[in-house]
Write a structure and sequence with these properties.
Distance between the termini: 8 Å
Structural class: alpha+beta
CATH class: Alpha Beta
CATH topology: L-amino peptidase D-ALA esterase/amidase
Shape: globular
Order of helices and strands: EEEEHEEEHEEEEEEHEHEEH
Radius of gyration: 18 Å
CATH superfamily: L-amino peptidase D-ALA esterase/amidase
Length: 304
């Protein structure tokens, strides 16, 4: 397991909520004081909320939290609970007559794992926020990773549990960290060695080697939208909104390093980026560390 957590960054809190029997949940990544934010949507079947707002040319510069959710598009309702919680804390974009918390969200598909009729809702989103602390969050089958699975290219019967993981990279007084819910069509590999550590597996325990098997001509069985890896990469370095969007783009390389294949038509891979603006660091280093932090978090998710 890699060390570190996204809560190593001052001002960021994380909380999980889940229904273990229904195998679904959500994870709140909160920054109540605000953080400059960006996003990169790389998968072809995403389920998201407030991603247009994060475009560099648009008005709002900061967000107050990000919700990572199971439940497919139904799970986006969890962000309503996060908005209510943050409003109660006095956090939000000041519009004169009220403060409006800005809470982008992304979902993964776990409806085929537990009870498809139970999904994250506003109450579960609120609970995740109420559980949020600066303590390193639980990893594995918690929160948004509760019903996650990996290695689904040839059918759910050959898949393995996924999960949620977190890790951080330190660059002097600057930290780059990630939290990722891993629910992929492809296999998860140790990006240091290329060895498969979770994925499609034969009944005798042997790996399919999803990428290799597909390249040999096998037809994938995973249904569109039934997958998706989602997460947040954050840094305490000072970034513009444009740079934060670029950080999210570079962080997607971490998904490609650790999941093979990734960013497929059946995936909705989405990464948000947050900057709390306390330190200064060479931007190229931050981008390199972002991909590494994401790859480490993915490894931790399936190991946990």
């Amino acid at each position: 397991m890699y060390s570190g957590s996204i809560t190593d960054i001052r001002g960021i809190l994380v909380g999980h909520a889940q229904d273990g029997a229904a195998r679904t949940g959500c994870t709140a990544v909160l920054c109540p004081a605000g953080a400059t934010a960006g996003v990169d949507v790389r998968g072809a079947a995403p389920g998201t909320r407030e991603t247009d707002l994060l475009s560099s040319e648009n008005t709002v510069q900061q967000v107050h939290g990000v919700m990572l959710c199971g439940g497919s598009a139904f799970g986006l309702a969890a962000a309503d609970g996060a908005m209510r919680y943050l409003e109660e804390q006095g956090a939000g974009f000041d519009v004169g007559v009220a403060r409006v918390p800005i809470v982008p969200a992304a979902v993964l598909f776990d409806l085929g794992v537990g009870d498809a009729h139970i999904r994250p809702d506003a109450a579960m989103g609120y609970e995740a926020c109420a559980n949020a602390t600066v303590t390193p969050p639980w990893q594995g089958r918690r929160g948004a990773g509760c019903g996650a699975t990996v290695g689904k290219a040839f059918g759910q019967e050959f898949a393995m549990p996924g999960g949620i993981g977190t890790a951080s990279v330190t660059l002097g007084d600057t930290t780059v960290a990630a939290i990722v819910a891993v629910n992929a069509v492809g296999d998860v590999v140790d990006h240091r060695t290329g060895q498969i550590v979770a994925g499609a597996r034969h009944p005798d325990g042997q790996w399919f080697d999803t990428a290799g098997t597909l390249l040999a001509g096998a037809q994938p069985q995973a249904r569109a939208g039934a997958n998706t890896t989602i997460g947040v990469v954050a840094t305490n370095a000072l970034l513009t909104k444009a740079q934060t969007n670029r950080l999210a783009t570079c962080a997607q390389d971490g998904i490609a390093m650790a999941i093979r294949p990734a960013h497929l038509p059946m995936d909705g891979d989405t990464l948000f980026a947050l900057s709390t603006g306390e330190t200064r660091c060479e931007f190229a280093l931050l981008c390199t560390a972002a991909a590494e932090a994401v790859a480490r978090a993915i490894f931790n998710a399936v190991q946990a």
